[in-house]
Amino acid sequence: MVSTVGGTARVPPPIKAVNFHIWQPCNMHCGFCFAQFKDVRRDVLPAGHLPARDALRVVDALADEGFQKITFAGGEPFLCPWLPDLVARAHQRGMVTSIVTNGSLVKDVTGLAGVLDWLVLSVDSLVPDVLTRLGRTTAGRAIPEHAYRSLCLDVRNAGISLKINTVVTRANLGEDLSSFLLDAAPRRWKILQMLPIDGQNGGYDNPLRVTDEEFRAFASRHLWVARHGIDVVCEDNDAMTGSYAMLDPAGRFFDNVDGHYSYSESVLSVGAAAALRQVTLDRAKFLARGGQYDWRAAEPAVLVRGAVE
Q: What is the CATH number of the domain that holds 45?
């Protein structure tokens, strides 16, 4: 459907969900992280984030462009003092709202109830030594399993949909998270193969990288939890390439189709439509990985997306 704004025809974006990495700083140092954005902080944005006023302008531009769902990511987005304002603005503009977090700074989710639709918690391991090896620690300490469990319960009690992300790496390859998943009962669980990106996590030289076969083995071992009402999504490296609409902390779209990040001009300087045309987005791959689903549904679908052979 083509909308008209100010007398000008506007074509909706090919992908209706967008990830806005609002905050480059992070309180963890995960060795597999593909969103470090040290290049952005070095070359474009010394603070590692936009001022609150400009970040709100980006949210408005994305809503005007026709995006229906926005995920606030980082770095660690809960380091951002105006994160609640961004979520509230996106909600006010009619977008489904989501936050991806490592969980270490989430103290009270009830304040976001009513404006936040999804909280996405990164849980890559429940073993302290593995979390330490991954760099998923704060001040040298890993989040204990009981804290993950407590946060999951708090999110669900607040009426916010829970999603869990797990990145499969060399460190957690043999772990079984099934029991934790059944107790946490997220609506959605995304299993991600560690994605090597030059300039972010060392690319293919990263020792945490796993093969396609190893990733499939990890995913296949866990798929049975879908029978308990968890929407399980498996994304290998190919599925993650070119299938996400993403903005960096400077408000620029970027893609990863060449194994590194290519950035557009800023949405704040050229507008969302023009910036979006400067990156590669593959709608077919977005749909194939299950990116389009009923974001507002009250109950999860008993479904496995991204079948693992």
A: 3.20.20.70
